[in-house]
């Protein structure tokens, strides 16, 4: 093959393999572009034939430049027109190429994926360095916002389109539902955005030595916790039959994440056990008992044991051990607030091991799963408004849920357009191999000996003797 010979020449002329690899990259890019251009040329000629048969005439040849993952390609296609009809470009129609679009659907999908992992400028640098196409950070931002908005719409609409019979829905013994909020960095002159999250899963399993969540799904909203719960509710209703399921819910008890908010999205179930998140409870205890660290650890132990007598004992001891008369009133108020907090949430503070449930772990995952969002959307000079945060978070959730490609395919026209049947027929015609004729071998013959020597054939016969 010619390309193999070219690669051999590159290796021979290069001083190092790095130098050769750089030249290989350029060679493969050129070959991909040449092959694509040749493919488009053949398709274009075949596509316009059916229009010629209908009386269309070639009006002009138009060039178009598009970015694909294998490189930027400029290719030509013919525009046809017919009197009384609107002019069109058959190749664009058959390939379902969107007008004025410079990037292929796969380029936009990968750009949005890169943007969900790092800042737009870094995503642009990575794309320009590691791929054969290039995008500016502003172009990536625009693509991400458009894609994220469509993903949010799909997340809300998809459960409504899934008409699943009750007998076909999943029946699980336990379903975990958790909710929590994540405050994002404030943009200059803007109100601080908060990302509201709800996460569901069916338990914890071991993958090698690493624990993983079973059938985990993440839902989010930058608008309100109510909207995040609504999105989760739609998927739960479309997926699960909870009539014989024990629901385990967990939250920090903040505004919008109270037990009744979980009751609203569950409906009928076998049992609902709500927990106050242990991490936040411990933080609250340490905050209120900051003046006596020794007793703060005793209080954490008393709450873990769910022993109200011990809780009251620790409060009494803390009150007696206040030595700073100047701040006594302040510390006593802290103790009053702590006891009030524990009283309000006492039922939810009962540990998993004390509730006679057929499990010992699985709660507290929402807080630990903030990382994909916080790593991308907090600190390092990053600021988000409500709309931008919602769009980017939707992409992160869709990727984690494994539905990103499905959402794009079903929501964005460029992703869901299928080749029309006529185009498949054109491809089959081009791929048909021409019929080979049976070989008849070498045909033998001779020049007659009776030709006059003055004749041309006679002269030829004399030469061939």
UniProtKB/TrEMBL annotation:
This is Uncharacterized protein family (UPF0236). InterPro entries: UPF0236. Pfam families: UPF0236 (PF06782). Belongs to the UPF0236 family.
């Amino acid at each position: 093959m010619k390309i193999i010979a070219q690669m051999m020449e590159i290796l021979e002329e290069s001083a190092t393999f790095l130098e050769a690899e750089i030249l290989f990259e350029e060679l493969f890019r050129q070959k991909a572009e040449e092959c694509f251009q040749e493919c488009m040329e053949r398709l274009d000629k075949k596509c316009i034939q059916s229009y010629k048969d209908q009386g269309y005439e070639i009006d002009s040849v138009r060039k178009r430049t598009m970015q694909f993952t294998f490189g930027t390609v400029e290719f030509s296609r013919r525009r046809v027109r017919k009197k009384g009809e609107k002019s069109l470009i058959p190749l664009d129609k058959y390939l379902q190429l969107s007008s004025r679009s410079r990037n292929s659907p796969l380029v936009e999908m990968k750009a949005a994926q890169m943007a969900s992992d790092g800042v737009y400028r870094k995503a642009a640098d990575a794309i320009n360095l590691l791929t054969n196409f290039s995008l500016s950070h502003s172009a990536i931002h625009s693509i991400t916002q458009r894609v994220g908005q469509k993903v949010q719409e799909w997340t809300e609409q998809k459960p409504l389109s899934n008409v699943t019979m009750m007998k076909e829905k999943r029946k699980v013994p336990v379903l975990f539902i958790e909710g929590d909020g994540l405050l994002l960095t404030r943009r200059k002159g803007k109100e601080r955005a908060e990302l509201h999250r709800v996460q569901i899963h069916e338990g914890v399993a071991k993958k090698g030595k690493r624990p993983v969540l079973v059938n985990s799904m993440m839902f989010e909203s930058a608008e309100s916790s109510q909207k995040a719960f609504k999105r989760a509710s739609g998927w739960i209703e479309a997926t699960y039959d909870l009539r014989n399921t024990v629901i385990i819910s967990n939250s920090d008890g903040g505004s919008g994440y109270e037990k009744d908010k979980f009751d609203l999205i569950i409906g009928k179930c076998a049992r609902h056990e709500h927990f106050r998140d242990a991490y936040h409870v411990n933080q609250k205890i340490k905050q209120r008992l900051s003046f006596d660290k020794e007793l703060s650890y005793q209080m954490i132990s008393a709450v873990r044991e769910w022993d109200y007598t011990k809780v009251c004992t620790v409060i009494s001891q803390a009150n007696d051990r206040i030595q700073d008369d100047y701040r006594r009133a302040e510390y006593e108020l802290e103790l009053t607030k702590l006891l009030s907090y524990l009283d309000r949430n006492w039922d939810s503070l009962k540990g998993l091991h004390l509730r006679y449930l057929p499990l010992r772990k699985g709660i507290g995952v929402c807080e630990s799963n903030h990382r994909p969002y916080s790593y991308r959307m907090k600190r390092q000079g990053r600021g988000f408004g409500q709309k931008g945060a919602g769009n980017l978070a939707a992409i992160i959730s869709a990727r984690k849920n494994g539905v990103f490609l499905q959402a794009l395919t079903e929501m964005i026209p460029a992703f869901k357009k299928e080749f029309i049947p006529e185009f498949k027929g054109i491809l089959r015609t081009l791929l048909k191999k021409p019929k080979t004729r049976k070989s008849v071998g070498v045909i033998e013959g001779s020049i007659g000996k009776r030709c006059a020597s003055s004749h041309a054939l006679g002269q030829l016969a004399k030469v061939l003797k």
